[in-house]
Amino acid sequence: MLGSTVRYAILEAIPTDDSQEQLPSDSIVSRIAHESYVNSPNTMPPYPWWKHLESNFYRRPEGFELGLWDWIRVTGTASTDVALRTFGALALGTLAFPVGFHPVRFHAALRDRQIYTQMADSGDPKQFFPEPPSGVKVHHRRARFPLFRPKDGQCEDLSFDSPYQPVNPRMRKSHQRRSSNRVAHARWWHHNDGPRPTIVAIHGFFADHYLLNEWMFALRWFYDRGCDVVLFTLPF
After folding, report:
1. CA 189 to CA 140: how far, in whole Å?
2. CA 6, CA 222: separation in Å to the nearest integer?
3. Neighbouring C-alpha atoms within 13 Å toward the C-beta of 168
4. What would the pLDDT profile of 24-72 be if each residue is shown by its tens digit?
5. β-pairing, 153-161 with 183-191?
6. What's the rounded Cα separation, in Å, for the pair 74 and 168?
């Protein structure tokens, strides 16, 4: 699974008086005057606006204007994202096709369908995602060579013996036979002054390296805004 780089901007409330507050410097903003928009009268109808768009609306060019530097960043990020996702899809598809569509495995998966159908029909998510047990011992150690090591916090590698068991009985023996499946790993960036809201970024088999995901998930950006961040490797 190859994640896409997504940037979130925390936008401050725009004042409606004569004071001139600047939007955060890390936001990409249009040259359109935000104050003019806020102060303009509300002309929207009280029902869904998308029902009143003209039929050829999708053909019109986007009117959101950007400065040159912002345009370069937006275009470059979008192009990189498309290239990475395309490469990832092609590589993963090429590797997965011989295994996933092997006749024996394919028919075995079809036979297992009843297991998952019953769980889905029950409407109870705990049948597939049971509550994790308490008392699992977690091991901590100082992370080695992170891209970002906070001055006001810690970067630690976590590991623990995973209590996870596949819900499909046919898969349990093969799952436990692989020792790497039995230990869960995560990397945790946290502030020194106590618990903070924590963002858990899920990454997976195809792009599971911490250094890559620090960049892909804009980890430092979230940390600098007061959040703790955890990266862990799928599936457990």
Report:
1. 12
2. 11
3. 14
4. 444 555 555 555 555 666 666 677 877 878 888 878 776 667 788 988 9
5. antiparallel
6. 44
Q: How far apart are CA 114 and CA 103, in angstroms?
A: 19
The residues near 66 (Cβ < 8 Å, ≥ 6 apart) are: 28, 30, 31, 74
Tokens read off for 209:
């390296």
Contact present, 198 and 232 (Cβ < 8 Å)? no
